[in-house]
Amino acid sequence: DQQVKQNSPSLSVQEGRISILNCDYTNSMFDYFLWYKKYPAEGPTFLISISSIKDKNEDGRFTVFLNKSAKHLSLHIVPSQPGDSAVYFCAASADGNKLVFGAGTILRVKS
Amino acid sequence: DGGITQSPKYLFRKEGQNVTLSCEQNLNHDAMYWYRQDPGQGLRLIYYSQIVNDFQKGDIAEGYSVSREKKESFPLTVTSAQKNPTAFYLCASSESGTYNYGYTFGSGTRLTVV
After folding, report:
1. B11 touches chain A (CB under 8 A)
2. Taking CB atoms and an 8 Å cutoff, what residues of chain B touch A42?
3. Has residue B101 got a pLDDT over 70?
4. What stretch of H or E contains A10?
5. What is the pLDDT of residue B98?
6. pLDDT at A96 over 70
């Protein structure tokens, strides 16, 4: 049972435009959500997070939106840059520790 | 520099052999984790440990074993019982019991069965 789902395996965006990566979850006990970025043959690195008491968190070009009623979160990257090309993982936690990861979305930013 | 070191980066194993993947952290984190990444399946939890001398099975623990004798170290042994061991293995650590930046990951070990 996949508790965290990223239904788009890949996304291609033109440089300078907005990238929107989506994530759905089924466990209503999740109260903390994170996005990680991963380059090939490297470990994921933390990008941005959001607590369930908020509906938006912004950090530079990256904004995460949380819609608890829909059990949906999204990551917006504006403007997209070629260096943003990577695999993006959505993750969620219900207990402050053990994260559940989605399958990832490959983002390709074309210059 | 604080971080997590995984070694080796690439590992080849013959069928029927056990191999051990190393994971060391100097972040003073209490919790450590092992994940496996396969194409299209994201990161799946193998084992995790929240304190020294204690660990729990994750979602896909069969064919794997771990130990946590020191806070800094959490080695993973891939046994001959693991039917499909070829994968990219990631070790991570975190501060236990607090919301923070989630996990710090190592750079991974790619294991190939030949």
Report:
1. no
2. 107-108
3. no
4. strand A10-14
5. 56
6. no
CB B7 within 8 A of CB B73: no
> For all residues of chain B together, what is the average pLDDT?
91
Buried b (16+ CB within 10 A) or exposed e, A64-91: bbbeeeebebbbbbeebeeebbbbbbbb
What DSSP designation does A52 have?
T
Q: Say how many CA atoms lie within 13 Å of A28 toward its Cβ.
A: 2
Helix count and strand count (H, E) for chain B: 0, 11
Cβ atoms A62, A75 nearer than 8 A: yes
User: Residues of B with CB below 8 A from A34's CB?
Assistant: 101-102
> Other C-beta atoms within 10 Å of B63: how many?
15
* Percent of chain B topping pLDDT 90: 73
